Hints:
- The protein is of the alpha+beta class.
- It is globular and about 90 Å long.
- It comes from Batrachochytrium dendrobatidis (strain JAM81 / FGSC 10211).
Amino acid sequence: MNSGNAYQNSNDFGGSDVNGWTEVRGNRGRNHNSASIKTSRSNVRDRLGPSIESSNEGSSSGRDYTNGRRNLHQRGDSGDQGGGRYRSKRGREQGAYNSTQNVSRQFVRFSKAGGNESVTADTDDAMDGGNGLRTRHNPYGRQPNISYTSPSGLPLRTSVSIDGISANIPVEELVAFITKKANPPVTVKTGQRTDGKIILEFENSKQASTVYRLHGIPFAGGKLYIRYYSKPMARNTTSENGAHSSTNQSIDLLRSLVTSRFHAESRRLDFDRIIEDPVVKKEKIKVFDQHNPQSKFGPVLCKIIQEVCPNLETLSLSGNKLCTLDHFSTLYQRVPSLVNLSLQDNMISSYRDLEPLHAKEFPNLREVVLIGNPLRERELSRPGGEINYTSYIKKLFPTINILDMQPVLEEIQFDVVKPLTKLPLDTKCGFMGSDSTRLISQQFLQMFYSLFDTNRAGLADFYGDNAVLSLSVDTARPLPGNRGAFQSSARQSDKALDSWAAFNRNLYKIKQPEKRVTLAYVGQTKIIHALGQIPGTLHPLGDPPERKKFLVEAINGVAPATYIHITVHGEFKDLTASALLSFDRTFIIVPAIPGSRSAMASLPFTITNDSWAIRRYSSNYAWSDTVDTTITASSLQPTHSTPISNPAPVLPAVSPWPQLPDEQTLLQYRIRDNLNEQQHTLVVEFAKATGLNYSYSLLCLQQTGWSAEAAGQAFLTAKNMIPPEAFKL
């Protein structure tokens, strides 16, 4: 036995069991101490742990066995070694101790790690339960294991998955973009493309969180969908706690449930009241964990639905006590073919609870049912709530035409058709360099676009051997003050632009010189091949009213050069996305060289340069009221009303419909919509003049910037689209 080590395990000491006490002996410093540990429990040990009573049996000096630790207890000394009075550290006066009764206690706390800590305390503190413990450092104690985890108990993730990227875009380009945009800076350890997504791994979870906040950022004509990514773990059915086998069993049972409830003939998955299924209750499967809506069980369910239910069209989730749709945040990726969705009889209480579904990403979704949810019941109980409810749901689900088993009319947009300010000069038609230039330009455009919409391969004769085609996509949104003309088709065109991203040569977005060269198609073969890959289009080439959706300008080249510079502004329909897009296109045409392909096709011109810019739909309001000198003045009868400064009826005729309630109800409407006195009066007067009810009158005035003149003109423009409900109380 090593007598000099006071921290040895109890097995190293000689000990014996005497009268229920275990005697422990050992040397501690210069004093030989003996201690006894009571094997039975006591009140003091219950509170403070095992105790060791020490006495200085072999010493006549009267010192405490702790060798110098006496000063920790004494505040004063009587000068008598054999005894004296002292004040404890808690400030209480103690009696005299003689040399043979000087007893102190040492409490030993045994740690789970196998080490121990010695704790010294006064006897009076120990007995009265006071906090008089002093911890002595144990250099041999084992350090606790520390693992860094997230608040949910899962390891912090250091990788993200990025979706919404064209297959033509290399991983290196995305990494360079992410590295440039991330703030604070991040370091990408690895990047790879997996299942149509790009997985990026970073040095730590903080960097992954920084990149996660870039979700939705525009890139290469589209948006980046960024989510945390966890590396798939191999199945281990022989783990100590059986956790993996239990999870695998739950997944297998869930797969069986989906299989049994899927009707292949009608492509319908009936998941009504799945939480009440006997199998789910018996096996305690947390299909929709309300305490952890972002658990991994939701994505697993979406993946199972994709595998078991190909081309699913109808999904019913009625009666499952859903309070959020976080469980289905990946459903749009798994089941893009969804047409009908039922969320009836759940616990959805706010519009925000519907957002995780990403409903705008379902291109074919046509019907949604929300009957029996607190959100719907609350909204419909309010005055004018049906209009607000329908409007909000339509924003979240822009493609639907049936809501709660009732048809949904197209959203009314009171766009301002006429400018609010009279410009000093009239808007003129597109400039033409000469009459011959105008005739050649009209002939060229008519021939070109008729083939462009029907047979693009036939355009090979139009392009020269060294012709260049460049296509750019502008994804920028209009300023907030200029969105009136954009509202009717903006959401649809947002989705349509994604299919053009692979051909985008926007120099503000594409910085790599090699890619800029690749996306500039040179020669007839490459140009026709590129035109054959872009979505189908339909340009309005019908009657003259339709042709007013185009604005054409043409000028002649400066001598001695012989060419015509043609610029076209207008719109077309993307047949793939069924959405309107606006465009600006510039052609440089020259006379066909004898013997060239164009000349052999009897074409008088050849295209040498074709530059095409596509953007969100913005209508033709900029030139819809142009003044053409070839049209007589009598055919144009523009009306310019004087702006009113005080609220007054905009239209002279007063509607016979009883569209306004009593004064008390109108006051409630004003408080509900947070309007001031002038706004409230204007809404009431506008309702009297148009026959619209209060809610629709407010909607019209809000969308036209509270201009009575503009609101009146917008009402006349959209009156054929207004439903009968707008004229009812």
